[in-house]
Amino acid sequence: MRLRLLGLGFLSALFYHLALPPGPAPWLGWFVLIPLLAAFEFLRPATRQTLRWLALPFGLLWGTLSFFWILRPLPSSDIPAAMMPAALLILVLFMTTIYALAFLWILTWLRDRRGSHTLWIAPLLWVLLEWVRGSGVFAFSWIHLSQTQTTEGGFLAPAGWVGGLGLSFLMVFFQVSLIKSLREKAARWILLAFLLLLLIFRVPTHQDSERTVKLAALQGNVPLELKWKREFRHENFRIFTELHREAAEAGAELTLWPETAIPIPVLWPSYQAHELQLREIARNSGVPIVTGVQGMEYDDKGALSYRNSMLLLGREGSFENIYSKARLLPFGESTAFLDPVLGGFHLDFGQADFKPGGGERVFEWEGLTFSPFICYEMGLSSLTTLSVRRGARLLLNSTNDGWFEGRQLLALHAALSPMRAAESGVPVLRCSNAGITMLLDSRGKRVVELPVGERAVLIAEVAIPSRPSLYARTGAWLPQLLGVLYLLGFLLVLARTSGPGGRIEAQVDS
Prior knowledge:
This protein has helices at 2-19, 34-43, 47-67, 84-114, 122-133, 159-181, 185-201, 224-227, 233-249, 272-285, 339-342, 381-389, 408-414, 416-424, 470-474, 477-497, and strands at residues 207-219, 254-256, 289-298, 304-313, 319-324, 363-365, 368-374, 395-399, 428-432, 438-440, 446-449, 456-467. By secondary structure, it is α/β, with parallel strands linked by helices. The longest helix is centred in the N-terminal third of the chain and has 31 residues, at 84-114.
């Protein structure tokens, strides 16, 4: 029993790893939990066996395979490599293992009290745990089950109806139905109805207009060890000036530069020469620019505070709008949440210490409405859908990936953009300093993508939707309502199938 449980737990973790980007098999996402759920349903281990030999191996291996990249920081990133094994352990425990244990413990606890129909609550329980992991100060949605569908061959269409969490629900529901259909006749009809529902979900809920926009993203591939040095500023401007000129000559109507592409506070009086230089780039080309800059201002205590900002320059070089990142990456960009614990003691994790900002999220320029999102913010569905409801018909995502070796981190982070595009029904232009830079249409399909680690310009035309997705228009209340109805239906089934003693009498088709 122990070896079988251990093997099935490891098998689910391996499926998950192969399905998540950059894995080769996104279709495996629809079968990730089958080994776990099959062990739960057919082997029926006791609670301790479930947690020790099934949930624990699954959570530990799933987390280790998902976060192994953190052990390989680039020397130029200034990230203390000696701290990374401890960081990996924390991530594995608090981002995967604790959720695997909670998921299977709750299922086992319910099964021991309510009987054979318990497995049907698994989709709702899984999504609830994903919602918890994707909320709060440490919100992290990179490894949600639905993220497995963001690469070529994945099935993202339902996201426009029910969002990313709703897609995770559908994926778990399919696996539960498949397992239940092996024994129960009613489950076979449920499985058939579900497959027909997936056909309906293929119908897009957004509507593209005839208007198209030619966009450009500048992948500067600026070395991290040079980017912030004073003596490199002239060369940095030269790189992006040439890339911007190339985009303008190709007919781009708007160019997007990476996060902190201009790593200085150009709006501060001391940097007026750099401000004029940036204005001149836009004015000489006649093409608007959205670029990452460093923001700086005095805080309430009179001290200078730095912000991670995005700036819009018009075709005449005028400063049209600015947004400062409101949701900072824990540890990477801010440790303010540790102040109550550390009593003001400062920890340096090798990155900038920014202050959260804000400002107008929806920019408008010559009839085009768009919203900038900086790095980590693209993982927060509530922010993107809110912007779309406020009128944004294009999402811009600037990032500065390149702190760790290998492609796994890049692929996992970049997978957030296809999900947000399919979920909201609007295109996404993603610009990264070294990659992954890409344009996604309103269904989350990759229109064009630049090679990683090259200095290049992405130029492509994309249709601007006249109407966003159903999920964005309804403000996500529809999947929440469906979740409540599903829970009520589950409780009704339990009530109708309870025996005299309050337990469930299994109804198995032999």
